[in-house]
Amino acid sequence: MTSIISSMTVAQVQALTGSQIAALATSDANALSNAQVGGLLTTQIPYLSAADIVEISTAAITAFNSSQIPYLTTKDVAALTAAQVSVLTTAQVQALSTAQVNALTTTEVATFAPMLTGGQLGLIGSAQASGLTATALGNVSTSNLPSLSNAALGAFTSVQV
User: How far is 50 from 77, CA to CA, in rounded Å?
Assistant: First the structure.
């Protein structure tokens, strides 16, 4: 089916139902082009599995626009690979919902910290905050630092501050 997916137009991919998106093999997800990923309907995105997300190329991950990002499940966001995380844009990161920010791994928080809004930074829990490197924390906007919760601040080590 990979060859079929890769030969489909954006309009044809948009015509797939949620159950058809859910039925994609991970190799099919890997075959999605940047245009196809960028063209996914918000109603289709929740049907991508975490295994599908992992298989989407880093180039295609950048094709998700900020209106699509909130439709990724929390499992999808937590499943992003280090390579995928490293290519997300500030607009994509700032489009993360409350539930998605709560689902971020410590590695994702360390990467995203400088891009998070004050509101998003305030959602970071103590376990996530403990994973922030001193460098990542140093790159957080001073205007966003007051948004950190007391729990997050209490989790910092002497190396971080």
Answer: 8
DSSP state of 45: G
101 is written with which tokens?
Answer: 């920010």
Output the pLDDT for position 2: 56
CA dihedral 146, 151, 153, 159 (to 10 degrees): -160
What is the DSSP secondary-structure string of 142-154? TTTGGGS-HHHHH
The pLDDT-based confidence of 101 (bands split at 50, 70, 90) is very high
Does residue 3 register a pLDDT over 80?
A: no
8-state DSSP, 157: -
pLDDT of residue 136: 85
Q: How far apart are CA 152 and CA 130, in angstroms?
A: 8
pLDDT in the model for residue 132: 84
**62-83 as b/e: b if 16+ CB within 10 A:** bbbbeebbebbbbebbbbbeee
Q: How far apart are CA 76 and CA 79, in angstroms?
A: 5
Buried-exposed string 102-122: b where 16+ CB fall within 10 A, e elsewhere? bbbbbebbbbbbbbbbeebbb
